[in-house]
Automatic annotation (TrEMBL):
It holds the Pfam family AraC_binding. The lineage of its organism: Bacteria, Pseudomonadati, Pseudomonadota, Gammaproteobacteria, Oceanospirillales. InterPro entries: AraC-bd (IPR003313), Cupin_HpaA-like_N (IPR047264), Homeodomain-like_sf (IPR009057), HTH_AraC (IPR018060), RmlC-like_jellyroll (IPR014710), RmlC_Cupin_sf (IPR011051), Tscrpt_reg_AraC-type_HTH (IPR020449). Keywords: Activator, DNA-binding, Transcription, Transcription regulation. One of its GO terms (molecular function) is DNA-binding transcription factor activity. Residues 195-293 form the HTH araC/xylS-type domain. This is Helix-turn-helix domain-containing protein.
Amino acid sequence: MSSTAVVPVFKLYGETQHWPTPDLLHCESIPERSHLHDWRIRPHRHADLVHILFISQGSVELELEGTSHQLQGMAAIIVPAMTIHGFLFSSDIQGHIITLAKPLADHLHSALNDGKVLKKADFYRLASTHSTTRIAKLVAQIDQEYRYPALGRNQLLEALTQVLTIELERLVVPAQASVKRLGPQRREKGRQHLEQFQTLIEQRYREQPSIEDFARQLDISSAHLNLLCRKMVGLSALQMLHERILLEAKRQLTYTNMTIAQIADSLGFSEPAYFTRFFKRNTAMAPREFRQRQTGHVNEATLQAGG
């Protein structure tokens, strides 16, 4: 595989569409999507997503930041945001890919006292140990809960993911001597500015500051900030802010009983009508219609699970 060409920025695993749900976590089996691409996901990166792959069977040719690695059998792979990565899976591959939106990844990072595992692109060949068994069970639980939601779904998914992150963090120390590590990565200034901008978005998106305000905090011009965002993410700085606001709006419409006016106010809109126009412009449906559809989907999934 080669990453010398322009590297696309994907919204999800091999795709360019928007984040598909109001959840901060997405889980699916590796064969589920990779077979649609003939088992190959070409090198790309994500602006604000973190991948955790757990492989239980088969092999994968993995590319991380231009370096190829051949993995056979059980393995865990961590792909932080902005890491160039690609996969060529064998047709007998089995396992899951868990994708975390940046707000959840940041929360887990803080909860683990600045744990490193979700911040470093790496892979771990796994032997048959109690730790590996626990990881496999956690991944299976996350997959089950994600597909068949029931009461307390969000809280349970977050708890399971936090435990999974702790188990993965424990792999870091014993793996030092036996696993081939990636060399130090040079982080160009532009990437640092982008990460800082994403952090500021997370801290301040409810205020809806101007892009000029963000740029001043980063000590760069708004034109330079927009150039960085378009070059590295494929979106303008304002579009990145709007995507975060939109994600939170979807979550509140799906998982809370807040009124449209209350949601609008909590997200920094001076009038509910402004929020409705913003939401409809970005989703092609009104907030009320989106809520009705999502409520129907959650109820249907609960019924299928016997809830």
